[in-house]
Each structure stands twice: as structure tokens, then as C-alpha cells.
Specification:
It is a single chain. A hairpin with a 5-residue loop joins strand 2 and strand 3. Helix 1 crosses helix 3. The longest helix is centred in the last third of the chain and has 19 residues. The chain is mainly alpha-helical. The model has no long low-confidence stretch (mean pLDDT about 90). It contains eight helices and three strands. The radius of gyration is 15 Å and the shape is globular. A three-stranded antiparallel beta sheet has the order 1-2-3.
Length: about 140
């Protein structure tokens, strides 16, 4: 690509450079870069890869938004269990499936075990992976905006 997307991202948990690039392209509305980034993310399903970085950032950002002293959570907990019902209903079925196996850990929900979700993603069709990626990137863009 011969251009840049100068947005500064708020979510430091999206640590992979190409994942950050894809998120900036999404925020800037650059369809050409979004398509390129989506293709890369959909095939990079390793721990520490593009999809993993996006998934980790999404889960940690959303977990912070869902925190409520009136609704305490004991960790470890699956993302699906701690997500509000209206959020879960917004996710498409493949995303719901991934969130049932993705676990938030740490004393205050500060880390994520994405390995089971990445394994499930590798078994999904490209179409279903795309649904999960869309839900994750849309959620990240929402937290950035």
C-alpha cells in the first residue's frame, strides 16, 4: 500500500502491527486495506498472530466495559458467560461459539486464553471465520470511537 492510516489507537492490547494496521484501516474506512487486512487475518490463526491480537484486544476492551460492581465475576470465566445478553445476541453464531471457549483470566480479568478459540477458528469455513472477524473488528472499532 502506498498510503497510511494515521489514527492513534486506544487499545494497547491489539499489539500485532498488522492487526493495528487493519483496525486503523477500518476506522479510516479504507476498503482496499480492509480487504487486504481481512485476508491476512483470516489465514493467520496462530497464537500471537493477527487474528489472535484482534481477538485479545476485543475481549479485554469489552471485559472492561462490562465490569460492574453490582455484577461481580469470578475468573477464569468464558467471554460468553460474562458478556451481557444483548451483546451476545448481537454476535453471529460462529462468534458466539468462539466466545464460549475463549477464557478471561487473571485476578481482575486482565488476560485472555485465546488458544481454544483459535483452534475452533481453524476448523471453521472461511465464511464463518469472516463473521467472527467482522464482529471482533466492529467491536474494536466501537471501543475506539
Amino acid at each position: 500500500m502506498g498510503h497510511r492510516h494515521p489514527s492513534k489507537l486506544k487499545n494497547p492490547e491489539v499489539s500485532h502491527a498488522r492487526a493495528r494496521w487493519l483496525l486503523r484501516a477500518e476506522l479510516d474506512g479504507c476498503e482496499e486495506c480492509q480487504r487486504e487486512g481481512d485476508r491476512e487475518a483470516l489465514t493467520d490463526l496462530v497464537f500471537g498472530g493477527v487474528f489472535d491480537s484482534l481477538l485479545t484486544g476485543f475481549v479485554l476492551a469489552r471485559t472492561q466495559q462490562w465490569y460492574s460492581p453490582s455484577r461481580p465475576v469470578q475468573y477464569p470465566a468464558t467471554v460468553y458467560r460474562i458478556a451481557p445478553i444483548d451483546e451476545r445476541d448481537f454476535w453471529r453464531e460462529p462468534t458466539q461459539h468462539c466466545m464460549r471457549v475463549c477464557t478471561v483470566q487473571g485476578p481482575r480479568g486482565t488476560s485472555v486464553d485465546t488458544v481454544p478459540a483459535l483452534k475452533e477458528l481453524r476448523m471453521m469455513s472461511m465464511g464463518d471465520r469472516g463473521f467472527v472477524l467482522d464482529d471482533v473488528v466492529d467491536g474494536l472499532a466501537e471501543t475506539e470511537g
